Amino acid sequence: MSLWHNKCVKHLLYARQFIPRRIRAIAHAVRQANAVMRPLDSTLFRAQWAESVFGGLRSIVTFAVAGFTLQHILATGIAKNSISWSLIGPLLGIYIVYTMATSAFSLWLDYRNSLRTDRLQFHLDSLFVEKIRTLDVGRLNDPAFIHTKDFAERSGRHSIRELTHAQHTSVQALAGLVAAIGVLAFLDSVLVLLAILPLIPQTLQSFLMDTRRREMRERTFMTRRRRAQYQYWLTAEDRVEQTRLFSFTSYLHKRFMQFSKTLLQEEASLDWLTARWNILVRSTQFFFVSIAFAYLAWRVVRGEIEVAHVLLFIGSMQSLGTALWSISRVSTEFNSGYWDFQYLSRFLETRPLIAETDACDRVFFSPARIEMRAVDFSYPNGTPALTRCTFAIGPGEQVIVVGANGSGKTTALSLLTRIYLPSKGQVCADGIDLSAVTQESWLRHTLMSTQHAGVPNFTVEEAITGELGETVDQARLTEAANMVGVMEFCNIFPQGLKTQIGQDWPGGVGLSGGQRQRIKIAAALYRATDPRIHHVFLDEPMSQCDPLIRQRFYQALKQLRNKTLVVVAHDPACLAYFDRILVFGHGTVLRDLRGRSEVDRYRTEVESILTADDHSNKAA
What we know:
Elements: H1 2-40, H2 42-80, H3 85-134, H4 137-140, H5 143-187, H6 189-196, H7 199-219, H8 221-235, H9 240-245, H10 249-301, H11 307-348, E1 370-378, E2 384-393, E3 398-403, H12 409-416, E4 424-429, E5 432-433, H13 439-443, E6 446-449, H14 460-465, H15 474-483, H16 486-490, H17 513-528, E7 535-539, H18 547-556, E8 564-568, E9 580-585, E10 588-594, H19 595-619
Parallel strand pairs: 3-8, 3-9, 6-7, 7-8
Antiparallel strand pairs: 1-2, 1-4, 4-5, 9-10
Helix pairs in contact: 1-2, 1-5, 1-11, 2-3, 2-5, 2-11, 5-6, 5-11, 6-10, 7-10, 7-11, 8-10, 15-17
């Protein structure tokens, strides 16, 4: 008994703190959703509120009109010993007009709601695009932001309509509830008591179920994420091939089923609790409704209630039952819409990773001297990447960066591009700290091509230039396409550079991974040959291309002699095309090799290591 008492007190105290705070949070989310919906169609917004109120009163009004009409017909008919068309005709005409008017109004609402739904979709699309444009590259690469954006896309988009529907349902339910209780109070105060008592277990059920669902959602969050990850690798078209070829299918399926079983057990436990509460609530409602009808019948038999009042009572009980049913579900709808809306709110409230309050736009008319001065850097998730990293690159210098995986090469390029700012130290251009330069203005003069960049399914020309028609510099396009062999495979297509990429498009063609990488690098080179670009940073540009294309590409880089060029690569053959090497390791520069002799010596050293490893493998 003591344990049960303590649990009850604990739940009551929690409810006292939690419910008001949750109601305020949901009300705030509803106001935000209304702020989005109202401007899209203010007339529809007001009409739906009116329709919600009328919908809650419809049952009572219908039965009241029917009851008093029936009572009038019976009284008049009995007095005249007949019921004529002159008595029924006007009433029938009023009913037909009412039915046609409500049907026309419903059709109008459906039409305007369809238009508003389309506008909402385009409005949210515009919000997403504009928000992405306001964020810096570092934030766009942040895993936490990517997670938020994905949930905003999948769930947040529907939350506005979900909250709007929930508030209209709640208004309709409250209007019906208040009207029903008012009518019952008019008939007999005892009926009000019998109508209110079933609300107590129903309210407790709604609160308890919402609390349990929230607890289960928090408890199973990582389980759901893991299950979704295994499902993705089992079903996604860009992963299922690798899964099959690596013989991972059995293991992934086993893990997927394990997580599914865990989630199913959690859901089954909650369903069983819901079923028990449903039995309690329905039994309570049936008990009190039966008593109410028995009490009403007793008063009818005694002649204390007229026929019109009986129908009014039936309409009120029907309206009350509908309101109770709606209220029991609208709280779940509000909660679901609230949580989904949080993803959308967090996405829209996301700020750039790098604050630029003290930064300003700067123009660079020529390549700058770029320096890293004792730079320490850790990613937003806390992973350390650079430690006391120091080097300088002169204007127009061409440098290759080498080192083991995870040594900090790509991170260094990201800092030079001002995607991130260092935790300690400085990254400078002509002595100016890049933290004082806006990212947008720096990127007007700087280009970085990452190893993970994709190729959009546009035409080849669009994918390379990002432009259309007369704005394309055909000379630069041809030069960039020739530098990496794009023209070679485009010439076999009837439309050449106008060919659509992607077999899922009409007239489109499928391209290999190497061909797509050539297009990606051609796009980088097209922009690199822009006179406004002074700094070019390329990360693993030729990782998927054949040796001949690699050779042609590195030879073509000589045409960028008037620009600062930094290339990250693992291929020892490309060392011959550079006069300076930065060797990275453990997040810093271990060796800075300058001049042909030092570069050749390092190249010989690398080739000796590779040869020794090859002999060891053969011996083994």
